[in-house]
From TrEMBL:
It catalyses: ATP + H2O = ADP + phosphate + H(+). Coiled coil: none annotated. Residues 1-96 are annotated as: Disordered. Residues 112-313 form the Helicase ATP-binding domain. It is an enzyme of class 3 (hydrolase). Residues 357-535 form the Helicase C-terminal domain. Residues 10-23 have a biased composition (Polar residues). Gene3D superfamilies: 1.20.120.1080, P-loop containing nucleotide triphosphate hydrolases (3.40.50.300). This is RNA helicase. One of its GO terms (cellular component) is nucleolus. SUPFAM superfamilies: P-loop containing nucleoside triphosphate hydrolases.
Length: 790
């Protein structure tokens, strides 16, 4: 529950605002976010430190637990105390490149020398060091001007060449891949898509001239399936390696294998080769660079054959960190209370006698606020509250005069690019303060202008897979210490800042040092199918940086066998190969469950409908929930179906395709045009792939046939057919185990957003489980129990 806005306007009223106070640092003191907050012995300390002695901590125990200032307040759930941190001493086993200015530019020659002399290099670059934007430019200039090529000149004076030098840079998120590529193209003074480009799903902004290519992890993985040697690249940079997504962990092993294979392989002559080697020449060695601001470098160095580690200090400003005095259970209320008090009381931020302004006037009503949330729905809920608050307060007084109040913006991966761009286009003449509600995509890579305050809820959303139950559940979890450091560092990118952590100091100490790799907590049957498609028959022996559990691997292989996507090779107990069906499945860049469903839908003569449903499930919520008044609810109810949410999605897309003015139609029906357009793009891609795979594109007017297909086409007990629950006499639903004695049934509930919520259907199929205080089924479909016996 969020606090009443009217009560928040006066902290003397019933709902008391958090008491956020701290002593001002004395002139010349250093406010740092390192020391106790550093997550482990092999990680860099938090962003925000200052001075030439900053480096890796030797261990968490070496940090002082002394608080420079601790203020005790009234017994208030959202009271904060102030903590000023100190920088640790540098260890002796890392190469340290330090500078008082833009670090990467001033250590360019040392960096290139290390890259030249090492096949693999790990670069730990602090927030603000410029590693993501500058290092690819250094590499391209260096490689293009080597003795093998005749260089020419870039518009900005750097060297270039017509040779096929391609540097690939991966990012875990689309937002970062696009925004960083745009930034680099501006610096090089070239059109985006020419020398510098990016490639994300459904948006290929590259050309034959592109030599610096930013992309998501998934794009490079798809390329590796067709080209295991990654022969188009001279250098692969794996950026934001600390994120440890399933795809990034898979890429580590794939890229490492490509580097090894290329060291002894020969390739046919091309236009840049001579004929002195019998029509063949050796592949260029593949350089690998691993980059991050904070990660377990010891683990990464071991994995990449004792690769050397270079540490680069960042250009960051002092950051003050505040913790709550006591635990709270409602972080949403704490978040909004903190936000409104910051806005009312922090009209100008200064640190000592010398506030830093540099080249930009960031004194504008004290700077903007970045709030870390867990997901899109939470973001939209909080934005509604802020909009209501702003409408009531209208204007506010600051030392700069009368200005408009808060203006809220969302930031999440599914947000349209045009709306994402608004976050970065800050007009310094705007006389209002922005508050940006973001998911963890704002933790790294992107720099949002004028952020001076960060509110860290300490939470994020994560999928957890249980091999025992066979279900993957989405739930909210605590962040790691490394993530906390990244979040606080957002406040000090361009000026001094403050970070308000909505958790206690003891709670912070209980956080894990680093995020648990996704591959160790998610279902990996899709990963294993990709590996087998790459020719890696013994997936248990694959060189993961951190291996999934044997139980998870065996459970995933068993699932793929039931799907008939793989089979044992030569009666081996550990070697597998793709079946004919599996070879067709891997052609589709979707969940293997969906690929199998699509292929088997031919038998039910409803491939068109199944393609549409899969496309709609592949995008975020198409319903605009930013407004939930009676009018909006009534309009959305028009699309509802007594047969379930999946048929509702089918109805929405059918109506969308029929609309002549799609944008207007979406606005009138409170639907997200960007998500629907994206669903249309996915659908067209799947249609094209079906044609290539000779899959019949047939349609049916019967929604019952579609539901029957959804329930049994992929096989009872596997695919979507495994996600089935029955209504019980006690009023609950329990999942069906299909005779699998090793798989216990679960008590589950229909999510309130489902159009079946008010009904008590006998049997339902569901797509996903979301866990809060209960396990809720989302995206349901009504099915007949007797279908499962056919």
């Amino acid at each position: 529950m969020v606090p009443d806005i009217a009560l928040l306007k006066n902290k003397q009223q019933q709902i008391q605002l958090p008491n956020i106070n701290s002593a001002t640092p004395s002139p010349g003191s250093i406010v740092s976010t390192s020391s106790p907050e550093s997550p482990s012995s092999s990680s860099p300390s938090c962003p925000g430190r200052s001075g030439s002695t900053s480096s890796f901590p030797s261990s968490p125990e070496n940090f002082s637990s002394h608080h420079s200032n601790t203020h005790h307040h009234n017994s208030n759930d959202y009271s904060f105390y102030h903590h000023q941190q100190r920088s640790p001493r540098p260890p002796t086993n890392y190469h340290r490149l330090s500078t008082n200015k833009l670090p990467v530019c001033l250590v360019k020659s040392q960096l290139l020398d290390r890259i030249q002399n090492n096949e693999t290099l790990i670069i730990i670059g602090e927030t603000g060091s410029g590693k993501t934007t500058q290092i690819p430019q250094f590499l391209y200039e260096h490689l293009s001007s080597s003795k093998y090529h005749q260089p020419s000149t870039l518009p900005n004076g750097n060297c270039t060449s017509s040779s096929k030098v391609t540097i690939g840079i991966t990012q875990p998120r689309r937002v970062a891949a696009v925004s960083v590529a745009q930034r680099v193209s501006q610096e090089i003074q070239c059109r985006i898509g020419d020398l510098v480009g990016y490639k994300i799903r459904f948006d290929d902004c590259t050309s034959s001239n592109t030599r610096i290519k930013y992309m998501t992890d998934g794009i490079l993985l798809r390329e590796a399936i067709h080209d295991p040697l990654l022969s188009n690249y001279r250098v692969i940079i794996l950026d934001e390696a600390h994120e440890r997504t399933v795809q990034s962990d898979l890429l580590f092993g794939i890229v490492k294998q490509a580097q090894r294979l290329r060291s002894g392989q020969k390739r046919p002559l091309d236009e840049d080769s001579d004929s002195s080697n019998g029509g063949q020449r050796h592949y260029e060695p593949l350089k690998i660079i691993i980059m991050s601001a904070t990660m377990d470098v010891d683990n990464f160095s071991r994995y990449f054959n004792q690769a050397p580690v270079i540490y680069i200090e960042g250009r960051v400003y002092p950051i003050e960190i505040f913790y709550t005095e006591s635990k709270h259970t409602d972080y949403a209320t704490a978040c909004l209370s903190t936000l409104f008090q910051i806005h009312q009381e922090e009209d100008e931020l200064t640190f000592g006698d010398e506030p830093t302004r540099q080249n930009n006037d960031f004194s504008l009503i004290g700077g903007d606020i970045l709030v870390f949330c867990t997901g899109q729905e939470e973001i939209e809920s909080m934005i509604k509250i802020v909009q209501s608050y702003s409408a009531q307060t209208n204007i506010m007084k600051t030392s700069k005069g009368t200005v408009k109040t808060l203006k809220a913006y969302p930031l999440y991966s599914a947000l349209p690019k045009t709306k994402q761009q608004r976050i970065f286009d800050r007009n310094l003449n705007d006389c209002f303060r922005r508050v940006i509600f973001a998911t963890n995509i704002a933790e790294t890579s992107i720099t949002i202008p004028n952020i001076r305050y960060v509110i860290d809820t300490g939470k994020f959303k994560s999928k957890i897979f249980s091999p025992k139950t066979g279900f993957e559940i989405m739930r909210v979890e605590n962040i790691s210490k490394a993530q906390a450091c990244q979040r606080s560092g957002r406040a000090g990118r361009l000026a001094p800042g403050k970070c308000y952590r909505l958790y206690t100091r003891p709670e912070y100490r209980s956080f894990s040092p680093f995020p648990i790799p996704e591959i160790q907590k998610c279902s990996i049957y899709s990963v294993l199918l990709q590996l087998i498609a790459l020719g890696i028959s013994n997936v248990q022996a694959f060189d993961f940086i951190d291996s999934p559990s044997i139980e998870n691997i065996q459970s995933s292989l068993k699932k793929l066998m039931k799907m008939k996507a793989i089979e044992k090779e030569n009666d081996s107990d550990v070697d597998y190969k793709l079946t004919k069906l599996g070879r067709t499945m891997v052609k589709f860049p979707i969940d293997p469950r969906y690929a199998l469903l699509l292929i088997e839908a031919q038998k039910f003569r409803c491939t068109e409908e199944i393609i549409t449903i899969i496309s709609m499930l592949s995008v975020d919520n198409v319903f605009d929930t930013s407004m939930t008044n009676e009018k909006v609810i009534a309009i959305h109810r028009k699309f509802a179906s007594s047969e379930g949410d999946l048929i509702k999605l089918l109805n929405v897309f059918r109506r969308y395709r029929e609309a002549q003015q799609k944008m207007t139609w979406c606005q009138e029906n409170y639907l997200r045009s960007y998500q629907l357009k994206q669903a249309g793009d996915i659908r067209q891609q799947l249609v094209d792939l079906c044609k290539q795979a000779s899959i019949d594109l047939v349609s049916t007017p019967s929604t019952e046939t579609v539901r029957k297909c959804l329930a049994i086409a992929s096989g009872v007990g596997v695919g979507l057919g495994a996600n089935i629950a029955e209504f019980q006499r006690d009023g609950d639903f329990r999942t069906i185990t299909f005779g699998q004695n090793d798989r216990p049934s679960m008590t589950v509930f229909i999510h309130p957003s489902s159009c079946l919520f008010s009904q008590k259907p006998e049997c339902v199929l569901f797509v996903e489980l979301v866990q809060t205080n209960k396990s809720y089924m989302r995206n349901l479909c009504l099915i007949d129990r007797k279908w499962l016996l056919e």
